[in-house]
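ok so i was messing around last nite and threw this chain in just to see what happens. nothing serious, just curious
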Amino acid sequence: MRVPGAPRRLRAAAGAAALAALLLAGLVAAPASAEDGYALWLRYAPIEAPDAQAYRAAATQLVAGAATPTQAATRDELLRGLGGLLGAPPRLLPYPTAAGAIVVGTPANSPLVARLAPDAAQLDREGYLIRSVRIDGRPGTVVAGRDDIGVLHGAFHLLRLLQTRQPLQGLDLRESPRIKLRVLNHWDNLDRYVERGYAGQSIWDWHRLPGWLDPRYTDYARANASLGLNGTVLNNVNANAEILAAPYLEKVAALAGVMRPYGIRVYLSARFSAPMELGGLSTADPLDPAVRRWWQAKVDEVYARIPDFGGFLVKANSEGQPGPQDYGRSHADGANLLADVLAPHGGVVMWRAFVYSDEEPEDRARQAYSEFVPLDGRFRDNVLVQVKNGPVDFQPREPFHPMFGAMPKTPLMMEFQVTKEYLGFSTHLAYLGTLYRETLAADTFARGEGSTVARVVDGSLHGHALTGIAGVANIGSDRNWSGSHFDQANWYAFGRLAWNPDLDARDIAEAWVRMTFSNDPRVVEAVVAMMMASREAVVDYTGALGLHHLMARGHHYGPGPWVDGGPRADWTSVYFHRATREGIGFDRSRRGSNAVSQYAAPVAEVFDDPARVPEALLLWFHHVPWDRPMRSGRPLWDELVVRYDRGVAQVAAMRAAWDGLRDRIDPERHRQVAAFLAIQEQEAQWWRDASIAYFQAFSRRPLPAGHAPPPRPLADYEALSFPHAPGDGR
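result:
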């Protein structure tokens, strides 16, 4: 741990004192490495002098109960965090005796909190307030909630204020989550393989459960609780029915016990055909009474083991998964079957809308809307339809999904991808906070201007009380959790936006940098600038102007704009870019597939007009000539080449910026990030060269002046093969 600006001996002494205090308190084990990324944004590195003195004066004592597991988790986190930040933990007392006391609790369990913050009883269950108060005439701070879990969330917020060097005087903060269910979806298989995972094996060690509860599980729960996340789906949406068998339910119950003190409920992905595979039935027809009885018995068994079980996530009739359409039934029929048996227990169904048929569609982007919108109002009250942020599949840039705003009678749950399946796996720096905010801020115009996607998701647009947001996790067994240090920021950004979808992506990035790396202004400025430019750089070098789905087949690693053939047209790149000698782009206008008609009229009119559609989405909605003039004055072909090179140049600039921080970032993390940025620059150049070589064969136009031709012929790029790239669907 380093304290910027402090003498080396002072830094060493402060770090040693903090560590010694925590080891004596029994709260942490000695780290295997000084800075290996394991601590995430909860490093609690010592505050620099001279600021430390003022912060110590504001946290001399702690009044915190431990009568429940959540209260104990809150107290221990504050002791851990304050001890690390201040050099020693505050004195733990039943009542404050000096200035600078921090008092935590609820009006129901603490008479002192009832006196200092009686209005906390009116908060949402997970909400909290942080307030500067006077206790017997002395200044102090109260962290209060209606429920223990709200107090825990408030404690993490208080620690975040210290970590980011915010003042602790004059506080009057009041927070409640905007979205009810804030969930990570783990695409983890029972053999510990993670589909689209780039950070090692699954963290769930099913073989050793329930006998061995890895301490990593608790740290996972801590990290999620620090963001306000309150749910985790433990297994892959391409589900194995065995997860519902009794031996696995015992393992799931053990994990639920670890998560419970941190306010996190466990969910499972359920395979729709489980009554056949586990129950020996001849059908999984949702209207068959025997099927209903099987699910009722199974759900009762689950809740007998896990009383606070959250419910089921279901992928059905998509990419070969079984579902109700196998029996001539609708998605509503399938979802309602499960909803009915879960409802008495308070469980929910998260039914995914990521569907496309085995038959070749005119436009795959249209299918989810076509299947689900006619079912609006036919789902039970405890069903959420989980919709990806865009209409194809987590591409580096997509327009918002047209289902948002189109189903006013049905709660729609946002699904973002945190793991970077199409944005460079774990080695490319691509901060997704900008992608999430771009989607959430998009205006659906469902009820006029201001009908943002965020307002659909948080329920305020259509008056839904049950709301949800999910992120496909990027977590694995790697020591740094996410495969790269910067990918931790995407987990962090998802969690913060799940709590409040209107937060600013730059503010989130700055807080993460301050907690994860340093409060040194030079570090903060440089790294935040890298992060804010990073996702746009990936868009530029993988396919700007609305191009999409240009990756290699299967593993999705590297460029593959030439991918054609195979079992399905909509698994190919040529299906999506439709390049010809005349032009490029997928015509989704009213003259083409008419996908624009799935949006509200004000949005459709803009998307339908090549002159008005945002240039960033031009080739998503229109097939246009290579020589079409762009807003820069350049023809389309030249603009595309310029953007490919701009993306590569941005990565080079990020490398240079990071190299300039060599003396301000700990060597372990600086070295790995530098190596990954070098990989990213090489692969950005590869994407650029291969893509230009391919598309130039159609455009037949020279490269604009000053832009170098690809160094190798197209055939060389097409011949590259990477059969062991990680994370494919197997």
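not much to say yet. Residues 667-699 form the longest helix (33 residues).
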